[in-house]
Amino acid sequence: SGRFHDAGLVSLPGGGAEILDDRTRRKISRLKGSWRDWMDVMQTAHKVGMRTTGTMVIGFGETIEERALHLLRIRDAQDECLANGYNTPGFLAFISWTFQPDNTNLKAEKLGPQDYLKNVAISRIMLDNIKNFQSSWVTMGPEVGKLSLHYGCNDFGSTMIEENVVSAAGTTHKVNIGSTLQLIREAGKIPAQRNTRYEILRRFDDETVRVHKDFIMQN
């Protein structure tokens, strides 16, 4: 990680966490790395000054206790990062979503919006040391994404130019920039454009403002 960081890599995605408990991980795939393997990568990245994201996927048949353990392990790792004063915010954001079982060999009951929103709210309370929570409209749909802004999320996410994971499981939702602004405003929030460091680049305070074609390229 240190060599990658020296070469210019400043962040790592947090995919692959699913549930940080080895019983559930072995259920997902017997060759899947342990929860400790995932955490070691994240904590090593933090030590050399890289930003990462924490993630969580529910709906594999895990217990409520295993979900709680997942959150506690991320919380403890973030506490350790902040206590040691590493040159990084550690987990810059937390993103959770539900497992999409269609077209997979793993038999599981598909969770609905209530399960997702409840998990977001509980995660926001437990992970009070992670500032940003991203909505998962990609799996749950734009309307649930809008609701999630009232359950702890402060980031609606991107327009997703290409997505090949949940779409392979039969789940496809799409939004453009205009509908993203509308959904955020319908939630009673003020839309803003950010960069990958969660620094605000532009606020859309005026509801009459429309997005120009060069919006994506402006910053």
Your description of this structure?
This protein is an alpha/beta fold. The protein has a single domain (2-203), classed as TIM Barrel, CATH 3.20.20.70. It has eight helices and six strands; from the N terminus they run αβααβαβαβαααββ. Helix 5 (113-126) links the parallel strand 3 (91-98) and strand 4 (132-134). Helix 7 packs across helix 8 (177-186).
Core attributes:
two-stranded antiparallel ribbon; globular; 37% helix; 219 residues; four-stranded parallel beta sheet; TIM Barrel
Helix content: 25-40%
Question: If strands are numbered along the chain, what order do they take across the biggest sheet?
Answer: 1-2-3-4
Specify the overall morphology: globular
CATH architecture: Alpha-Beta Barrel
Concise summary:
The protein is 37% helix and 13% strand. The chain is α/β, with parallel strands linked by helices.
Blueprint (SSEs and pairs):
Blueprint (H helix, E strand, L loop, with lengths): L1 H5 L4 E2 L9 H7 L6 H13 L3 E8 L5 H21 L6 E8 L14 H14 L5 E3 L2 H4 L1 H7 L28 H10 L5 E3 L5 E4 L16
Parallel strand pairs: 1-2, 2-3, 3-4
Antiparallel strand pairs: 5-6
